[in-house]
Structure formats: structure tokens, C-alpha cells
TrEMBL record:
<dbReference type="Pfam" id="PF06445">
    <property type="entry name" value="GyrI-like"/>
</dbReference>
<dbReference type="InterPro" id="IPR029442">
    <property type="entry name" value="GyrI-like"/>
</dbReference>
<dbReference type="InterPro" id="IPR011256">
    <property type="entry name" value="Reg_factor_effector_dom_sf"/>
</dbReference>
<feature type="domain" description="GyrI-like small molecule binding">
    <location>
        <begin position="16"/>
        <end position="194"/>
    </location>
</feature>
<protein>
    <recommendedName>
        <fullName>GyrI-like small molecule binding domain-containing protein</fullName>
    </recommendedName>
</protein>
């Protein structure tokens, strides 16, 4: 069954209620093409796939969810074309399975570290920074963007305008959920959920 939080018609802005969810999460700073970002995402996938295989052995059928990212900066102008991408701050996340408790999480981390110390030392260095975190957004406006990441701006602006039209204020970081693999999909076919938490003014 398709997750209703990850669906929608391209360009249509929907209002959704997002429950508290648990994630493998790691924070950092820099452009998505930086080595530190790549190692951080690699650490998330190492744990997410480790959880999938460990859970399957116990009878769980959880699949690895899409990569998600929260993006912010002290000066949001850096997200405009030509902005200082090295100033971008982010928290990258992959949803964790419900059965995973803190003890099992540390077991997964130890196994991932042992496996990657020699073949992927940059990922091994990032693994200690991954946390098992709950994230609650509540009321959000979101829309499905189809196309290159660089062309998200107009739809993000529409989401902000819609929040104002509904008498809502922005209440959390910009959230992107990557439904497509950029290594396997053409830029004009990329599907990304753009989500913005909102709250009533006052």
C-alpha cells in the first residue's frame, strides 16, 4: 500500500498531518556534491540496509525508505542561484523500522563500522555521528516536484504563498523527500516531495 504521505499530483499543494516518526539521522554542512555529504549519506544507507537484513531474519518485512533531507542556513539567501553552497546546513534521514530499539541500533552500528573500516573509511568515520531520532512535524503543506532539483524554487515559493493565504506561518526547516535515484533517473524525471511544516499565526 502506497504511503499517503509520499504521494500526490505533481504541482498540487496538499495539507497533510505528519505523525512523529523515527529516523536514522545525521547532520552536517556543505553542498550535496561535497565528500562529507556523500560519506554521511553512505553511513545512513549502511545502517538502513543493515536494519532491513537484520529485520528480515526476525520476520520483519520493512523496506529501506527514501532518503530525506532538512535544509536550512543562517542566511536563507545562500539557497538562491549562485549562493554559497558550502554554507548549506542539513540533516539527512532515512526512516527507521518500528522494531529497532536503541540496543539493536548500536549493534547495527558496530557491524557497519567493522565492515567499512577498510573498504569505505570515510563512511566509517561518519557512522558515529548517526543518531536514532524521532522527528515530529505535525501540520505541513507539501507538493510533488517532477524535474531537476535546481528547478524547485517556483514550487517552494508557491507553497510559502499558500501558507500565507491560509493564515499559516512557516514553522520548521524545508524538507525534501527524494523518491528517485539521481544516478538512475534523468533530471527531468526526478520526483521529490517538497514539504513545509506550518502553524497558525500567533
Amino acid at each position: 500500500m502506497k504511503d499517503p504521505l509520499l504521494s500526490g499530483k505533481a504541482g498540487r499543494i496538499d495539507r497533510v498531518e505528519v505523525p512523529a516518526l523515527r529516523f536514522f539521522a545525521i547532520e552536517g554542512q556543505g553542498a550535496p556534491e561535497s565528500a562529507g555529504y556523500a560519506a554521511s549519506v553512505g553511513a545512513l544507507y549502511a545502517l538502513a540496509y543493515g536494519a532491513r537484513f537484520a529485520g528480515k531474519a526476525q520476520g520483519h518485512e520493512d523496506k529501506v525508505g527514501p532518503l530525506e533531507g532538512l535544509w536550512w542556513a543562517d542566511d536563507m539567501q545562500v539557497f538562491q542561484p549562485g549562493g554559497a553552497r558550502e554554507s548549506w546546513r542539513w540533516r539527512m534521514m532515512i526512516r527507521a523500522p518500528g522494531w529497532l530499539d536503541p540496543e539493536a541500533f548500536e549493534t547495527l552500528r558496530a557491524a557497519a563500522l567493522a565492515k567499512r573500516r577498510t573498504d569505505k573509511p570515510d563512511v566509517a568515520e561518519a557512522l558515529p555521528r548517526v543518531a536514532l531520532q524521532e522527528y515530529a512535524e505535525g501540520t505541513c503543506l507539501q507538493a510533488l516536484h517532477v524535474g531537476p532539483y535546481a528547478e524547485e524554487g517556483p514550487l517552494i515559493a508557491r507553497i510559502h504563498d499558500e501558507a500565507a493565504a491560509q493564515g499559516m506561518a512557516l514553522s520548521g526547516p524545508h524538507h525534501e523527500i527524494y523518491l528517485s535515484d539521481p544516478n538512475r533517473s534523468a533530471p527531468d524525471k526526478l520526483k521529490t516531495i517538497l514539504r513545509q511544516p506550518v502553524r497558525a499565526h500567533g
